[in-house]
Write a structure and sequence with these properties.
The protein is an alpha+beta fold. The protein is 20% helix and 26% strand. It has a six-stranded mixed β-sheet with strand order 1-2-3-4-8-5. It has a two-stranded antiparallel sheet with strand order 6-7. It is globular, with a radius of gyration of 16 Å. The protein starts with 10 loop residues before the first strand and ends with a strand. 30% of the residues are buried.
Length: 195
């Protein structure tokens, strides 16, 4: 994870309390005074989780619990918060190519979606869904079996913001073209603009 900024950060954190996988450097948070006020930006990678019911899956759920506790404990109405993440969870049926076939698979189980929605329901908004409430678009496609060519993907990458930042949101897009390049990532970038 990384954060690049033209504004010097007032504070940088590279861990949050009780992170069960802190040794894997999956969290960074920077605080800034920006043109839209005081903001905190978090870049986060949530572990994939492996097979449902595995130790890795259980750690993923625990990671979500600890991260949510951190967000709730540090909630402030005086600042705007942005979380840019590979959440490794597609939040809604519209965010996967075949909901019924995927409902018991990692990244789309009920338990995982519940964890992500707990964050959203604690004062955050999915910036992509605000701009595109009914558009089906994906940010990740498996490298195998021509998933990208068949558009068999999932929207597991998101930028979410505290609700007090939504009035500054101008656009949020998935850069599909980046996935068409030579030797691309299996993820496409999500880009949000604010003013």
């Amino acid at each position: 994870v990384a954060i690049l900024s033209k504004i010097r950060a007032d504070e940088v954190k590279t861990e949050f309390p009780n992170n069960p996988i802190a040794d894997q450097a999956r969290f960074i948070e920077c605080s800034f005074l920006s043109p839209i006020g005081y903001i905190k930006v978090i870049s986060l990678y949530v572990p994939n989780g492996g097979d449902v019911g595995s130790d890795k899956y259980d750690i993923k759920l625990k990671f979500y619990d600890c991260f949510t506790d951190y967000l709730v404990a540090h909630k402030s109405f005086d600042e705007k918060k942005f979380i840019c993440s590979d959440f490794n969870v597609a939040p809604f049926e519209i965010d996967v190519y075949e909901p019924k076939a995927l409902e018991n698979l990692t990244c789309f189980t009920y338990e995982e979606r519940k964890k992500l929605r707990t964050i959203l329901n604690s004062g955050f908004a999915d910036n992509y869904r605000i701009i595109h409430p009914s558009k089906q678009e994906f940010s990740w496609w498996d490298y195998r079996a021509g998933a990208f060519e068949q558009n068999k993907g999932m929207r597991i990458d998101s930028i979410i913001s505290s609700t007090n930042a939504v009035s500054h949101l101008v656009d949020c897009v998935i850069d599909y073209e980046a996935r068409t390049k030579d030797k691309p990532s299996d993820h496409a970038p999500v880009i949000a603009s604010y003013e």
